[in-house]
Structures are given as structure tokens and as C-alpha cells.
Amino acid sequence: MKHKIPLAFVLLTFLICALAIFQACNISDDEVYTPKPMGYYKISFPKKDYQLYDTTCPFSFEYPKYGFIKNDPSSLAEPCWINLHFPSFNGTLHLSYKVVNDNLNEYLEDSYTLAAKHQIKSSGILEQLIQVDSNNVYGLVYEIDGNAASAVQFFLTDSTKHFLRGALYFNEVPNIDSMAPVVNFIKQDIYHLFDSFNWKEAN
């Protein structure tokens, strides 16, 4: 035997559905909830404290105590090619030294070419002169914006005997949104390196 659904129940159900639809259409933009965009981990930065790098290499400089220096392990590395590691940030500043022997222009062109290779991924390259007359230190720093593999590159020279090239890399997929605070933090250490840099007679 079939049971008839009471008309009052049908009307009540219809009324509730209509009311729900009406309410949904009247929700203001402020009341609409959408998923929050992905955030990034908060980074705790260590205190700026420096120590002296002074070996048999023909240069010295100060570097942060939260970093450590090791010789470049590459089979192509030459004497006084060193890597300044930042383990907390998974980054490395590669430093390669060359003796100038009437070939400074060659080194300058190589430095520009290596920095320019990152233009494809970068949103721009800012060039700044380095000039520390008291220590006979001159050069150029390339600050590379965007998702380039290297965020900072530079060279230092006394224009007659010495040449040093530096390049900062991170062992991470380039993402300027997440890496910008770290890059800016290490840039301070790089500029401190410039200010504290000294040439010595080559051995």
C-alpha cells in the first residue's frame, strides 16, 4: 500500500530550500571564505658576528661566524679557490682567485659573461661599483633579481696584480618570494667582505 506524502511537508521542504538559496545569494564579499595562499616558513637569522680569513692566499677578509670556509673540491680548482658555506641557508659563496698578468680585460669579460647568463631567468640585473681606496680594492657587483640560479656575483681587483671573482648560489629551486629575505641577509655579509678586504703579495 502506497503512503501519500503530506502536502504540508512538501511545502515546508520547498520553503526551507528556497530560503537557503536566498541566503546564499545575499552573502557579502566579506563573508565569502576562500583558501589562504601558501605561506613560507619564518626564518630566524643569527647575530652578525665576523671573523678573519687570513691564510697564505694573497688576500684576507672578514666573514660571518655562522659560515665556514673550505677549499674548492673541483678538479678544475686552482690555488686559493675557496667556498664560503652558509649551512643554515643551504647557500655557498664561491670565490676564485687569479693572478693578473696583462690579462685583466679577459677576466673582466669572463665575469660579465657569467653574470649575463642569468638574464634569461632574472627580472633584471643591478650593477654597482665597488671602490675601497684605502685598501686598493675596486670592482663591480651584480645583484640579480628574479628566479635566477645565482642571486649575487661580483669581482674585485687592484687592477695590476690581483683578481677575485665571487658568485652566490643556493642549493634550492630558485624562488625569489621565499629566498628574498635570505639573499638580503647574506648581501650584508658580502658587502662587509668588500669593506674588510685586503690584498697581500702573492706567494
Overview of the molecule:
- By secondary structure, the chain is of the alpha+beta class.
- The chain has helices at residues 7-25, 104-116, 176-196, and strands spanning 50-54, 59-64, 68-71, 82-86, 91-99, 122-132, 137-146, 150-157, 162-170, 198-199.
- The strands form two sheets. Strands 3-4-5-9-8-7-6 form a seven-stranded antiparallel sheet, sandwiched between helices. A three-stranded antiparallel sheet has the order 1-2-10.
- It is globular and about 105 Å long.
- The model has no long low-confidence stretch (mean pLDDT 83).
Which sheet architecture does the biggest sheet show?
7 strands, antiparallel
Category from helices, strands and their pairing: alpha+beta
Please tell me how large the radius of gyration is: 29 Å
Q: Give the CA-CA distance, first to last residue.
A: 109 Å
SS strand fraction: 25-35%
* Overall 3D form: globular
Q: Total helix count? A: 3
Helix percent reads 25-40%
- Tell me, rounded to a whole number, the average pLDDT: 83
User: Spans with pLDDT under 50 lasting ≥5 residues?
Assistant: none
Order of helices and strands: HEEEEEHEEEEHE
Output the strand order for the largest sheet.
Answer: 3-4-5-9-8-7-6
Number of strands: 10
